[in-house]
Design goal:
alpha/beta
Length: 128
């Protein structure tokens, strides 16, 4: 994260994870930030983590985007991982949203965007 803390998916076991793969140069990614903030507020206090992973190669651009847009969720940078994150999640385009259940299993590798009614899917995973 911006403070140098490293995370692993196992850190969120027992919680639903709504993963947002994005980059600072991606206009459609930035357009989803307000809806993601609204979504995060709606689920505050629930067993859900909003995890955003940037694939930016330029750390300064990523940090500037964080400052300019204050996106929702835990913000991470996959810079320097030689594409391991993108390969692991088969990212060919962004933005890309991935739903992970409480057991850490991907249940949707191409989940709905925050502005497109993902709440039904999140609610279903929260009751499991």
């Amino acid at each position: 994260d911006a403070n140098g803390k490293k995370y692993a998916l196992k850190d969120f076991k027992g919680k639903v994870v709504y993963l947002d793969a994005w980059a600072s140069w991606c206009g459609p990614c930035r357009q989803q930030f307000p809806a993601a903030k609204t979504l995060e507020e709606k689920y505050k206090g629930k067993d859900i983590v909003f995890l955003a992973v940037s694939i930016d190669a330029n750390e300064a651009a990523w940090r500037k985007c964080l400052t300019d847009f204050l996106p929702a969720g835990i913000q991470l940078l996959a810079k320097g991982d030689n594409g391991k994150f993108a390969t692991a999640y088969n990212l060919t385009t962004i933005p890309r949203y991935i739903l992970i259940d409480k057991k850490g299993m991907v249940v949707s590798a191409d989940a709905k965007r925050p502005s497109m009614g993902v709440e039904t899917d999140l609610d279903a995973l929260l009751v499991k």
